[in-house]
Automatic annotation (TrEMBL):
Recorded family membership: Belongs to the KIN17 family.
Matches recorded under Pfam families: C2H2-zf_KIN17, WH_KIN17
Positions with biased composition (Polar residues): 231-240
A biological-process GO annotation: DNA replication
Keywords recorded for this protein, A-Z: Metal-binding, Zinc, Zinc-finger
GO cellular component: nucleus
InterPro entries xrefs: C2H2-Znf_KIN17, DNA/RNA-bd_Kin17_WH-like_dom, KIN17-like, KIN17_WH-like_sf, Rib_uL2_dom2, Znf_C2H2_sf
Organism of this sequence: Babesia bigemina
Protein name, entry field: -DNA/RNA-binding protein KIN17
Occurrences of domain DNA/RNA-binding protein Kin17 WH-like (ranges): 52-176
GO MF annotation: an example: double-stranded DNA binding
Keyword Transcription regulation: no
Ranges where the record places region Disordered: 228-251
Amino acid sequence: MPRAEVGSQKWLANKMKAKGLQKLKWYCQMCEKQCRDENGFKCHRLSEGHQRMMQVFCQNAGRFMDGFSKAFEHEFMKLMRTRYCKTKILANSVYQEVISDKEHVHMNATVWVTLSEFVLYLGRSGKCKVEDSPRGWMIEYIDQDQIRRDQDAEARRKREISLEQRHQKLIQKMIEDARKRGGFQEPEYTPLMKESDEKLRFETNLTKPVEAAPDKKSNVFMELCKKAKSTAATPTSERQTPSKEPPPKRKTAIETLMTLNGAKRQAVDKDVPKATTPAPDAVDAGASDKWLMTGIQVRVILQSHPLYKHKCRVVKIMGGGSRALIQDIEGSGNYQVDSNHVETVIPPVGSKVMVLRGAHRGRAGSLTKTRPDDLLASVRLDSRFYFPPVHLVSDGAVLDSVHYDDISRTD
């Protein structure tokens, strides 16, 4: 029977019948032809065109089936990636949407016989999360791009950490080389050296730095012309060399207040009479930093020292009184320390202490009272002393307001 002419009523009727999805079992994937009934599909299978295509298929069947399988998987995963990216859905629902297109690749032409086999394949390959439910197979898309981005970020972080570790090792190696050559000096912790009447001054500059204006396009010839006109108009007497000295800096509000307070204090000091100068011996004894004595207990405050925060006993004075040989109370070993790296030990009330500074340096006594908030204590002296006192005090006299740094526990 001849084919209907294009545009005729028969051709239009055939198009209307072919509209929509036909039965899948009457579709030929090799010829990409959809038949409307079983008789038409039989006639198609007996046609010469179909026979030629089947001969081509038989020559390399695996290549054709792999191609159809990849095309079907691509369409299925494209739909999962675009419409069902972060949702869990029935696999059959996605399959029905895939086959709604008349020109889709049929599953009969792929290596998967059923939809269950295809779903299990997606789960094994790690492309989807598969879960068996009473309603059927539930699948959820796995975003491989996000996983790849996370892996790249983790690899980048590890590279940065390795670079930083290599940098730290290089710095440590340079420090070791400098220590071997003798050019490396360990940091020493020293107290703040400040006199009682010394003032701490803080400078605060409230003026904002002038930001450089962005360069603007200018005409060089116009600038030269203006400069020549200004030079010609200015008299010779007025053409003086500009001063190289910077303009006086404007004082801030805090500096102005500090200047006024200093002037007021100077005026008050002029009106108040000067105090009587104390005895030179007492001043020298109180201002001396050589406070270490044999037999007292001290606590190490240097963090890098092996006996950090341990109580030790002074065994020997060295370096003119600035250094000492100390021994742990438990007798673990002897160490040399600087006077700046140890502090005095304040025992409980009633314990024996030694006066370390002042006119009564070397006198022993017992601790009678402590004031931790003010770091002061009271000591009752006895007849025991190592050095002749400057001012003889009878036994049993009490020294009030003695600083914690001026006394220490003794055996």
